[in-house]
Amino acid sequence: MTTLRLAEVTSDNVGAACNLSVAPHQEHYVAPVARSLAEAYTQPDVAWPRLVYAGDDLVGFVMAALDPPCPIDYFRCGVWRLNIAAEHQKKGYGKFAVEAVLAEARRRGNESATVLWVPGEHSPEPFYLRLGFEPTGQLHEGEVVARIRL
Amino acid sequence: MTTLRLVEITVDNVDDACDLKVAKPQRDYVASVARSLAEAYVQPDIAWPRLVYAGKKLVGFVMAAFDPDNPTDYYRSYLWRLNIAAKHQKKGYGRFAVEAVLAEARRREAESVTVSWMPGKHSPQPFYLRLGFKPTGEIDEDGEIVGRIQL
């Protein structure tokens, strides 16, 4: 089995990170990596962006938001963005990335983590339900809020 | 005359910044704002990104690199990116943005500022030459012409 690992975003890999493309039907559901890193630029203490490598191949990007004082409780700790490269999907890399966020959340003493998704065809909803996230019943700007206990 | 000003990138304006689009023929010549801010994220002490507002309207983006220790001398005080919104071009906003970078470079006691551009139709070459940048004769690693202005 190929070794999976997380890497921080650096000057050497940011170009490749920005070129990472999800499958076309997923583009409606997740911001491009460049946009996520632009947001990270404005909140470097909240954003926790990481690249996912399978061996030497860049296969994905995940960004957590870790913001304990946020007034909106479901933005205090969660998966903010997840982009798996179109040609590397269905291999368990997304699960690996989410579990890495959950591990980081635990390390920081959180008791739960959240994720939000836009409902619809090709939504990541079934993926997150399989991982154990449960809808809280809340909606945020049309997105379903879900939570997992750690 | 509309008041022009520079603004730092924040949580409140980053979406508008990323939505800023240059004219189509210019898209081969300059990276998107999101891409530039992604690069700024990995080099926050070097990148100096600012938004240009005309009154309350976001009209452009400029990013300098201030990296006095860079081994490549033309990257030490460098006009890295300039994006003026398609519908706000030809109004002097680009000149304002460049002059703001030159002022910041002076404040940091740089003696010159560089810029680099791809030659070709729709290249910003005539714009930078008009502002006083002069080709140094160097071509950077991406095949771009390096221009320099003394401060």
Automatic annotation (TrEMBL), chain A:
User: Is Isomerase given among the entry's keywords?
Assistant: no
Q: Name one GO molecular function term.
A: acyltransferase activity
**UniProt keyword list:** Acyltransferase, Transferase
Q: Which domain of life is it from?
A: Bacteria
Stored CDD domains: NAT_SF (cd04301)
Give the matching Pfam families: Acetyltransf_1 (PF00583)
Q: Which InterPro entries match?
A: Acyl_CoA_acyltransferase, GNAT_dom, Sper_AcTfrase_N
Record-annotated N-acetyltransferase domain positions: 4-150
RNA-binding as UniProt keyword: no
EC number per UniProt: 2.3.-.-
Group of enzyme by EC: transferase
Q: What is this protein called?
A: GNAT family N-acetyltransferase
Please tell me the species this chain comes from: Amycolatopsis albidoflavus
UniProtKB/TrEMBL annotation, chain B:
What does the UniProt keyword field contain? Acyltransferase, Transferase
Q: Quote the SUPFAM superfamilies the UniProt record gives.
A: Acyl-CoA N-acyltransferases (Nat)
* Record bears the keyword ATP-binding: no
- The N-acetyltransferase domain covers 9-151
Presence of keyword ATP-binding: no
Q: What is its EC number?
A: 2.3.1.-
List the Gene Ontology MF annotations in alphabetical order: acyltransferase activity
Pfam families, per database record: Acetyltransf_1
Enzyme class, broadest EC rank:
transferase
What is the designated name of this protein?
A: GNAT family N-acetyltransferase
Q: Organism source for this protein?
A: Amycolatopsis albidoflavus
The beginning of the lineage is: Bacteria, Bacillati, Actinomycetota, Actinomycetes, Pseudonocardiales
